[in-house]
Amino acid sequence: MPTINVKKADLERLVNMPLEDEFIEEKFPMMGVEVEGIFEEDGEKIIQFSINPNRPDYLSAEGLARGFRGIIGIETGLKKYDIESSDVKLYVENVETRPYIAMALVKGVIVDDYVLESIINLQEKLHWVMGRDRKKVAIGIHDVDKVKPPFYYKEVSGDEIKFVPLNAEEEMTPKEILEKHEKGIKYAHLIKDDKFPIILDSEGNVLSMPPIINGELTRVTTETRNLLIDVTGTDKYAVEKTLNIIVTALAERKYGKIHAVEVIKDNQSTIYPDLKEDVLETTPDYINKVLGTNLTPGAIINYLRRCRLDAQFVDNKIKVFIPAYRVDVFGEIDIAEEVAIAYGYNKFSGEYPIIGTIGELNQLEKKCDFIREIMVGFGFYEVINLMLSNDEVLFKKMRIEDNNYIEVLKPASIEHRIVRKSILPLLMETLRINKHKELPQKIFEIGDCVVIDENVETKSRVVKKIAGVIVDNETNFNEIKSYVEGLLRELKIEYELDNFEHPSFIKGRCAKIIKDGKIIGYFGEIHPEVITNFELEFPVVGFELEIE
Coiled-coil regions in this chain (predicted)? Predict the structure, then answer.
């Protein structure tokens, strides 16, 4: 889950009341927000919050304060934001790579150090949560007084234009930014076919080159008072919701006023932001059935208002109004969750379910538990890794060339986009992270791997495996062989051993395990190049075995 650091003084200013540390630790979890810690930094008290990804509106001090005011009853109900008109227009040409854009103004914001830090942090967190590391959504926040509307959104070639990117001193072409600028190098993979999206003002000044970098010209400082927000992306819903989250957060600041921008594309005009609330319906019977409560319609409405929603009871139905910055309320069950949050999870008492059968561990899980006991008896420590990783760890560092794997279509991050088919690489990564610990290190993991199988309906098959590694200055083939044979003996598996050439192991020091003519595992001494790739300095031996 994403974490954010909020300065306590700023939070108190937004909530408009002093907050004791104990009060913060007690009340914020009622909102579904974890308080990870409260500490001092540079003479200021900092609160670290852990935010659920389904609540991106909580990724700023402004959003947290708005929710907190509701949950403790200071200010309840749906917050209404006035949108004032402006003569600012944005003309959109045919931008194929990132076709959607939304834009708005927030004027009169007093940007002090607290506000500036909050803006930067919110932008970066939304890039990750809503934007999938800018692939889906990219955000630009500008000092609008430094440019002249109307604005234009179009695509240019890599050397068609020059501007000074943020945190740079010299002009660069878009292509040069991808080659020289830190952000350009990091996000160059998002630019396709030499088509560079650009946002310009009426005098040809560059505001932004989404999704890579803003222009230095419109940098936001503590002298800024009027902000222009642009959001571009590949998903219209995500673009519009991201804009709503940002402008409503800024409008929580003193004197901040939202102003509309007219976006014109293909002779069609759209006014942003659109802060019209969504409407859902439920019934008191449904809420009480789901929660096991006996709440009156009035009580349910009161709890919804404390979650900064609004509601009306008409014809035995509760009509619920959801603010435009919320992205997590889609149906009745979500409404029930909001009621439960305000009601208080600590008030619910547990009940034993009525069941027709008594469950027990699956035979495979019993076998895994038995294996754990054996490995712990051998002196190994168990670790647990994610099933998702990346090609760098799973293949390149292991000296493996493999294109036959399953990749996540819309990963949360580029570091976790490939479903593992082997556990051994992740154990090597674990050793790398813990290389500062004393030797020897003996670790193992039991877990699921997914392999492609064209003979089944899902075209993939889950395989339960165990893998183990040892790093020590004197470990060798004989040591790992003794542990593997000891494990196979305890499992009463009849097997054969034979030489095995595996790119991750030293040639001649790797063996395969054969049962009934099928290779079920292998073990040996890890190749020096693999050891170096994982930044280790001592010999490593390892094994991997299919449990089923």
Answer: none
